[in-house]
Design brief:
Strand order of the largest sheet of chain B: 3-4-6-5-10-11-9-8-7
Shape of chain B: globular
Strand content of chain B: 15-25%
Order of helices and strands of chain A: EEE
Number of strands of chain A: 3
Oligomer: heterodimer
Helix content of chain B: 25-40%
Radius of gyration of chain B: 19 Å
Largest interface: A-B, 19 and 24 residues
Radius of gyration of chain A: 11 Å
Strand order of the largest sheet of chain A: 1-2-3
Chain lengths: ~35, ~300
């Protein structure tokens, strides 16, 4: 895995999010405040 | 894979998730699975050096597809701290994360109810100290929201609306009031400092809330949790649960957040013991009005 997450691919309200599949197949979603 | 068995005497489901017996138990900060992954350090649940809010499938799920889901919501990449101590913007963002997960999980065919909660403190069974909460997407409607639907039927309308109106008529148990949200110790609290944070307007779930109402909810929840920590000048354990509409098409529901704190004084716990477990009747050592007065004295935004 890279040290930095991939860029967001979706928006939800004021948030940006990116969906990642972990090495064991489990889902991980990273939310960030879109204004930043 | 968990197994459900119906307990006939209680009339309720019991879930056996035996893999959870092996889950991580109170690791030190160096081995926290919810911290970001540091260069040269162990790979954690979040394999990046920094993040804001992360949600992932629980490694030890109580429910999993195709019969529900279990997720972990990590509020911050800072190991130390609490929900109360989050920057206000982060708390507001968390409301949107909860909303997104409720909406997405609730739309699934295999999900009947979405339970968003936080267990804070070893007194309520926390196994990881890093600030986080959990989400259980139930494949069935559990007893507490079912009881709330029954209360609606008994009162001939939304029970939460009716109870909020009663609390506001004689506000001796009200702790906090803003344009969108009211917090109070309920008339028949089952825990010494039980507190309900209720949307003033009838909103079945986070999805129906405006951006301003979500901001108001975040501010109220932080005010309440900060007052808890001030009350005995110590980190205050609690169970925090969002109550929202079921997702199985039964409708109803009124978004509110209930806190069940187990402390009855700075060092004494209220145990659900013989009467509570054997009879289902809670015995309280303190009146809700006295608890409310104590919390009102230390909360920001008291009416």
């Amino acid at each position: 895995m890279p040290a930095q997450p991939p860029p967001p691919t979706e928006r939800y309200g004021p948030l940006a999010l990116v969906r990642i599949v972990k090495e064991d197949g489990r889902a991980l979603i990273l939310f960030s405040h879109a204004a930043r | 894979v968990s197994e459900q068995r119906f307990n006939e005497l209680r009339g309720e489901q019991v879930v056996y998730a035996v893999a959870r017996q092996e889950r991580t138990f109170l690791p030190d900060a160096e081995h926290c699975p919810l911290c970001p992954t540091r260069p040269g350090g162990p790979v954690t649940e979040i394999p990046f050096e920094a993040f804001e809010i992360a949600v992932f499938d629980n490694l030890f799920p109580t429910f999993e597809a195709p019969a529900g889901a279990a997720e972990v919501v990590v509020y911050t990449d800072d190991h130390d701290g609490s929900f109360a101590g989050l920057e206000p913007q982060r708390a507001r963002d968390l409301m949107w994360v909860w909303r997104q997960r409720y909406e997405e999980l609730g739309a699934r065919e295999d999900v009947a109810y979405v339970l968003i909660f936080e267990n804070r403190g070893v007194e309520v069974g926390t196994t990881l100290h890093h600030p986080h909460g959990q989400i259980y997407a139930f494949p069935f409607l559990p007893p507490v929201p079912a009881a709330e639907l029954a209360a609606d039927a008994r009162l001939g309308g939304c029970a939460v609306c009716a109870l909020l109106e009663r609390e506001l008529e004689a506000p001796e148990r009200v702790l906090y009031a803003s344009e969108a949200v009211v917090a109070y110790v309920p008339f028949a609290a089952r825990w010494p400092y039980e507190t309900h944070v209720v949307m003033r307007a009838h909103r079945p779930s986070l999805v129906e809330c405006s951006a301003g109402e979500l901001d108001g909810l975040a501010a109220a929840l932080q005010a309440v949790t900060r007052s808890f920590d001030r009350l005995f000048d110590r980190p205050f354990p609690y169970v925090m649960v969002l109550h929202q509409a079921p997702c199985d098409g039964r409708g109803a529901g009124h978004l509110h957040v209930e806190f069940y704190p187990p402390l009855r004084s700075a060092r004494k716990l209220k145990y659900p013991a013989g009467c509570e477990q054997g009879a289902g009747t809670f015995i309280m050592d303190v009146l809700p009005e006295a608890s409310a007065a104590a919390l009102r004295a230390v909360i920001d935004g008291a009416p």
